[in-house]
Amino acid sequence: MYEFLISTSIVALAEMGDKTQLLALLLAARFRKPVPILIAILLATTINHGISAVFGQWITTVLSPEILIWILALGFIGMAIWMLIPDELGDETESINKWQRFGVFGATFILFFLAEIGDKTQIATVALAARFDSVFWVMCGTTVGMMLANAPAVFIGNKLADKLPISLIHKIGAAIFLVVGISTLVQHYYFA
Questions:
Q1: What are the extents of the domains in the chain?
Q2: Residue 108 · residue 37 · CB < 8 Å
Q3: Range with the lowest mean pLDDT among 89-98, 114-123, 151-160?
Q4: What residues form the membrane-spanning segments (predicted)?
């Protein structure tokens, strides 16, 4: 359960102001159909983070524990720095128009799945799965974290987006990534 709670909180904070959250806002404003948008985001995230978690767990079988600890620790610390760099969403109108022929659900699923590839939250999922023993709880936690950040974005839309303290949220998320990175090293070298 610890894996689930850490995964949920890290990804929920990492997603705040992220390009996929901005995409969710854009899709909600464009289609104005929150239920199919949310279902598509849930499915795209579950598949994407499921694959990422399996990959993260696989990495533990091919790298030595010593190398893996350093990669994980430096990865989490790198994510802390990345959290402080705001994301921007390019002009996605063309992409939405391209995929609109698949309907609200199809366009949202495709765009969200593609936008999540190489995103902070996907990389965090790989790192969390390598750090913890449970692919299932990490995948569930990161998916719930994504939904916690994106569901309000879809329902509220742009109305409150400007009122959220995104900078503060990013700093809190960065601090959590930093703590997890440092604790990975401390736990390995002092408590192993």
A1: 1-191
A2: yes
A3: 89-98
A4: 35-55, 67-86, 98-115, 135-156, 168-190
